Amino acid sequence: MLEAIVDGLTALLTPQAGLFMFIGVIYGLVVGILPGLGGIVAMALLLPFAYGYETPAMLALLLGAHIATIWGSSVTGILFKVPGAAKSLALIFDGYPLTLQGQASRALGASATAALLGGIIGAIFLAISIPIVRPVMLYLGPPEYLMMALWGLTIIATFSEGSLLKGLVAACIGVLIAFIGMDPVTATPRFTFDSIFLLDGISFPVAMIGLFAVSEMMKLFVKGGSILDRDVTNEDSSVLDGVKDAFRHWWLVVRSSLLGVWIGVLPGIGASVGGIAAYAHAVQTSKTPERFGKGAIEGVIAPDATVGANEGGGLMPTLAFGIPGGESMAILLIAFISMGVTPGPQMLTNNLDLVFTMMWIIVLANVMTTLIGLVCTPYLARLPSMNPNLMIPLVLSVCFIGAFATRGHIEDVVVATVFGGIGYIMDKYNYSRANLVIGMVLAEMIERNLHISLSLYGDSFIFTRPITLTMFIFIIVTTAMPFIRNWRRNRALATETGGVQ
Amino acid sequence: MSRHTQENILAFVLLCFFVGIIILSSEYGPRARLVPIPISVLGMILLAIQIIWQNLRPADELHVDVLEFLTKQEIKPGETEGSVQASSSAPEPVHTASKNPAESGGLTSNMRETVAFGKVILFTGLFLLFGPIPSIFIFTFGYFFLSRHFSWQKALFYSAVFSAVIYGLFVEGLQIQLYHGVLDPLINNY
Q1: Residues of A with CB below 8 A from B126's CB?
Q2: What pLDDT does A267 receive?
Q3: β-bridge mates for residue A150, sequence order
């Protein structure tokens, strides 16, 4: 195994591989910052150009671009409340409030460092756990995946922008919106009104562009002035503060990274669930959960560490079983096939050096992205102070063309506009937009796994599978915990006040 | 229109949405409606509670939620009621519309909202009619010029440069096939 680790690194120490990784990272950062275009688009567009080169260089280009999009999409989430991709959604909860407090540099620094540490920890733990993970993966089934999705939903209970009832209503609406289109289980067209366009459903990136980007620009116009009503020279933080924050919360980084590896290992769950679950975990385990949603740096660190580590985890099912861990891994699978490499159990024996080459790419691309990111951060942090007369037309233009580019359908621009209006109204009346997107992201996973679980294990599947039952109890406990803690604190406060009087 | 009325109208619209989903779902097979109907029923129940709750509270306490009330979130010493609400609701200063019309170019908040919706709809219309690149050029030029941020010459120059950058990035760089707009066949005929 040690030999494979060294061989994996040596394969990357060629000028071609180094150059390709650099190109991939720069390209990935640019694509990641553009709303609607994430890692999948980045890899899909690079794929035709990658043929004909040595395998490590090709992988460095594809994976390097994909890794860089992670931080790229975090940037817009933190600075403008516009998540570049669904996996960066959780970053807006605390990243944007930090920007409003003049701490954008700190948030971006923490985000880049957490993603780097997550990527490294994820790659290391995956390398160590390759022999253990396979049997565990095979033991888990749809009921456990259903529980994972339900765990992601618990964030709604802990973060609803002040109104939990409205937050739950928003999540219900999100779940129902996700059902628009062809039902994958029964092949029934649902809520499509005979529209061919709606058969494909509502695209998550397009909905997010509308809900966050378009509505934020509308709010900016209504409010007047720039996003950040202060002089950028008065920025209260530096990139170094963010880097220190990530190291100061090292235990949260480790936990979130392991969560990211675990979610990545499970096929079909994806990093969007990971980011949301990591945020929920950070809130639920914090001693001061009331700070979340108002600019807690842990709210930036946890999701980024998870998403960073998720890529390493996502490689596992792709390589070991030929089952893509997410959409981007599906593209990687196509690249493997074109190279004549057949993913499967023999990949972890015959082609172990290639597996470790990919681990090294994840580590090195993360390092490269973070270094570039930290250098760019002071300049990026100035963007929210831009005059609204410049920002509104420029951001709206990029958002609309991004919405169009997501699937190449002009109707998606109309969808983005509609969601922009919905987002504005929801925000004005305190219906959480984030909860709507969380509902959309988790709906399909919940429905699919519920159907399969019911078919395979019957109506009482939760109680017949010990792991499912344990996970179910865990969900109930972690959901109830903030309420119990809040109730206890208030009771203690009431006793204290009574004692003083 | 009072805040209570606005909140009630929105809640009733959402209630109608959930009812509509139930009616539509009832036409699908049992497996296809297994999740949508319970979710809609849950949404209706939550909204019904919300409607009752919000009509029992004064307008300045609309942010206080029934579930927060049940967990007895009390006002801490030294905090005003307003500060608790502000901290429990969305804390972002960008959320609050400017209350001084003079600061907002003489337009009231409602008028600015209408203009904001109008601008987004106008841009969408341009996109559908002319396709992305011409509409981006027209919209950015119009915005720069009409907001008096730039003189017409500068507005023309910057919007042309921006449109060219977008074209280079999306069309040349990312190889995205652009939509040419509803008017394209008509323009081609002439």
Answers
A1: none
A2: 63
A3: none
